[in-house]
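Deviations from the work plan: none for this task. Representative record:
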Amino acid sequence: MNSTLTWRDLPVLLSGDDTRLGHWTTRVTGGSIAVSIALVIVGAGLGGGAMGAWRSPEQALVSAIKLPLILLLTTLGNGLLNGLLAPLLGLNIGFRQSALAILFSFAIAAVILGGFSPVILFLVWNLPPMSLAESRTTGYAALLVSQVAVIAFAGVAANVRLLRLLQRLGGRRVGWRVLFAWLSGNFLLGTQLTWIARPFFGAPDLEVQFLRSDALRGNFFEAVGHAFSVLFSL
Amino acid sequence: MNDYILNPPPLPPSETPDPSPAPPPPPVRSIFGAIEALVRRPDSMPQVLSEVGVGRVLGWMLTVILGCGLIYGFIIGTFSGHEQLWRAPIKFTGGLLFAGAICLPSLYVLSCLGGSRASLAEVSGMLGGMLALMTLLLLSFAPVAWVFSQSTESLTAMGFLHLVLGSVGLLFGLRLLVRGLQRFRARSQAGLAAWMGIFVLVVLQMTTALRPLIGRADTFLPTEKRFFLQHWGDCIRGKYSKQAATLEPGASAAAPSRQ
């Protein structure tokens, strides 16, 4: 059995073969890390590019850089936390192994996003230009729903495979506990990083920027709370 | 007597010998062999891919798609005649290949998620086989489509007919794809079912993105972006008529102006 993840193992990674994934996770190699990072960069890059393509090619490029960056920064930023939580919750794996397991799940999600990017680009091609008033409602809604569906599918598929791997390494209950803890931490950091890196779709009346001038103002949860307050005041 | 009826004597051993096992299918050596395998033994596609080589089979499939697609596209164009005789074949074949190309990555990802161990090249070969079988079937429907295109004036009726014929071709093509991918140790078919839905949507949208396929227009491609259900609704309501085409240069679809 090959101890390092290679490009040829992509079907094995996507199928979530927990024997092979467990083998790669317990024997962390530079090759496995490099291939996982490359998959995140290519897959999420294509997914991000498709997201921004409706606004302009510049926005597509910016989103293609930002999306993989968020996934990699979330893995890196929560590496210590996830590495500590795993043994505390009964899963005896090290920092590098926990980081690689999470990287595997992000790589799976990224490959799914990349795989669907041509279909999303086809949708964008069929939408009226973003600058038209009618696009603000129907076009935006169509793209948003499609993107949410693809991202949700990618997230669920990746986490189901991560759960299988964690259950193989630590048993059924421990697997669930560690997955929940990791997801909570990654959700907290990931949503805030996404908030800071906004926009991904872009807006026709705002120029394309890598980061907005008010990028660090507010947070994701404040925005959700504000949206709820507006909704209920109506 | 009753005992005899309830417990009949054992039947003598059959005189006819057991049928011998079917001879193995002849090896595929040419494009015609590949076509025969597609039609007669659709389950053997993975075997053909591994025996002959993906690149070679893909080349054959592409030839079949181009040949059959261009002929069927020409038949579509005969409804309106004029520039549609060359535009419709290009749009039909190009659109089908483009739909296949943009759906290939998601097919590969979803087949892998379902546990299949097929490589990207093998999935491409299976997709090529699916499109080839579909266009082959459409070619066999071409005489029917041509007879109707020469005897009706209704754009909607022709569109509906092509939709039905295309659906039949697509159904057989998808069946070939499902059976083929099962041979690559796929555990689940749920992802493949989702992909089929996406592919059908892409193909249907392609009929609007590349419109008009049946009627006539001033421009090769439409100037207005539309969703296929919106466009079909307008076709059914009779928006695209001979008069509309005359009044609106660059209209997205028009009725035939057969001389």
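Chain B touches chain A through 27 residues (CB under 8 Å).
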